[in-house]
Amino acid sequence: MSKFDTKDVEKVAHLARLQLDDADVPGYAQSMTSILDLIEQMQAVDTKAVEPMAHPLDATQRLRADIVTETNEREKLQTLAPATEAGLYLVPQVIE
Amino acid sequence: MHTKTIAELSSMLHSKKITSVELTEHFLQRIKQHDGELNSFVTVTDELAMQQAKAADAQFADGSAGPLTGIPFAHKDIFCTDGVKTTCGSKMLDNFIAPYDATVTEKLKAAGMVMLGKTNMDEFAMGSSNETSYYGPVKNPWDTKKVPGGSSGGAVASVAAGLAPCSTGTDTGGSIRQPAAYTALTGIKPTYGRVSRWGMIAFASSLDQAGPIAHTAEDAAMLLNAMSGFDEKDSTSVEEPVPDFTAALNDSLEGVKIGLPKEYFSDQLNPDIAALVKTAATELEKLGATLHEISLPNCELAIPAYYVVAPTECSANLSRYDGVRYGYRCDDPKDLTDLYKRSRGEGFGKEVKRRLMIGTYVSSAGYYDAYYLQAQKLRRLIRNDFVEAFKKVDIILGPTAPDTAFNIGEKNDDPISMYLSDVYTAATNLAGLPGMSSPCGFIEGMPVGLQLTGNYFDESRMLNVAHQYQKVTDFHQQCPKEFK
């Protein structure tokens, strides 16, 4: 069945932007292999004629009028940020 | 006072036998006395609770009190609470104070309820044992060596131990019903879209639903009345009229058709639980209901489909935690990628990281059709099974979980066996149906729950059946000895 090795874990961890402890990687490879095996059971079912289900009640996305409903709460929201300056969020330098 | 139902407490408050301040002080004292052992609260909001209790007493004085006014409750730490820390059980949100109230929070406030605090939970609701919490495991009051179930572990432990008369929970694959079963409580996961998800921290958006946890079906009905209703702020909220869920509690079960899915009573199920659920079915038959064997042929696909849908959706939902706008940020990031990777790597626990990676993998380019699309097709097959079943019966009865609560630490190295504790509950979420757990017995001192599944928006029928069953049984009245 599907074998998920440590290289696969490192690749997907990067895609998910997760830094892992090196010591945890083999454990993830093992548990993710067994989870993917569990998921693999789905492939036994022929679903060619089945419509995917996006919503249990087949509801469609509700739309609202295109008008401003939210007030600007920049200051309140930025009090939650790890680092801000002059109303901007600070991150490490991106452009040299 | 801590062994009384909400219905009883409400009538004591209305007849002025007690005040909300007295009641709130009593429960805050219980929390002080016992929660060191259980770890069911992340935050206790004693000052706020006393303010709310005083406001409730003022409502009794001026005659504006409603059925839930002055009743204390424990709020799962997944619901945003303006000005009070909301952690979702994660280091990522250890310092997060929500700038607004969730709709559920708002509604319970408007009903006059008193918030005692925020309860411990599996990190981002990912877990079935409450062991993935950054704040440590919660103990089961029935045996403190055992897990309370999860993810709403603190929610059930606090109520089972009499530290709160009721609590809120959320259920993505069984997170209200399985812990309720493990602690002899009544818990309900409403129809998808019945209760607003706005301000409830998202795990898997197409599966998440909030619901009440209490001792009795009557209490659960009273709470569901306050929690339900259309909310334009939640794009998947359904515009469906909300009945008074207490109105049908006393209806006769004469002629009610109860279906027992034959697939639920397989080798996977502890035979003693099978026997207790069948005894419960016989009790319901004595009350006038008729029993029918039914089949849900695709139900064994629920767990595989669930472990595609839930991780895929959580990997999208949790991408918002980037160490930039709010939440945990690592020290001294050397560039933007390092900031993202270390903030997320250090801020999330092991199980959350595992699910994020599964979700990222199955939704990556080239795999979408084989996994997510296939899972969404299986959801339709699972739903169709239920739709067929509800042509023949009014309600479905089965076990809530395949076994009683397991030992703390027992399943930590084996995620699959942990996942399988939701084998009977996850299908309900995939189909969007309402489900509930009600106590139906004990095995070696540990509680067992039965699960009722209703048709879409037919929570009233489930509550009716559970209430009638609770009138002729006393499992829901049992309390763990050490916390009397």
What structural keywords apply?
heterodimer; A: 96 residues; mainly alpha; two-stranded antiparallel sheet; B: 484 residues; alpha/beta; eight-stranded mixed sheet; three-stranded mixed sheet; 15 helices; globular
Care to describe what's here?
The complex is a heterodimer of chains A (96) and B (484). Chain A is mainly α and 96 residues long. Chain A is built from three helices and two strands, in the order H-H-H-E-E. Chain A has helices at 6-15, 25-40, 74-78, and strands at residues 84-85, 88-89. In chain A, helix 1 (6-15) crosses helix 2 (25-40). The mean pLDDT of chain A is 91. Chain B has 484 residues and is of the alpha/beta class. Chain B is 38% helix and 13% strand. In chain B, strand 2, helix 4 and strand 3 (114-119) form a beta-alpha-beta unit. Chain B starts with 5 loop residues before the first helix and ends in a 13-residue tail after the last helix. Chains A and B meet through helix 1 and helix 2 of A and helix 9, helix 10, helix 11, helix 12 and helix 13 of B.
Rough outline of chain A: flat
Give helix % range of chain A. 25-40%
Helix and strand element order of chain B: HHEHEHEHEHEEHEHEHHHHEHHEEH
Our measurement of the CA-to-CA distance between the termini of chain A, rounded to an integer number of angstroms, reads: 46 Å
Structural class of chain A, please?
mainly alpha
Distance between the ends of chain B = 11 Å
SSE arrangement of chain A, N to C: HHHEE
**Which sheet architecture does the biggest sheet of chain A show?**
2 strands, antiparallel
Quaternary status of these chains?
A: heterodimer
| Helix run count of chain B | 15
Count interface residues per chain for the largest interface. Answer: A-B, 50 and 72 residues
**Main sheet specs of chain B:** 8 strands, mixed
Can you count the helices of chain A? Answer: 3
Number of strands of chain A: 2
What is the number of strand segments of chain B? 11
Question: How would you write the strand order of the largest sheet of chain B?
Answer: 4-6-5-10-11-9-7-8
Q: Give the strand content of chain B.
A: 5-15%
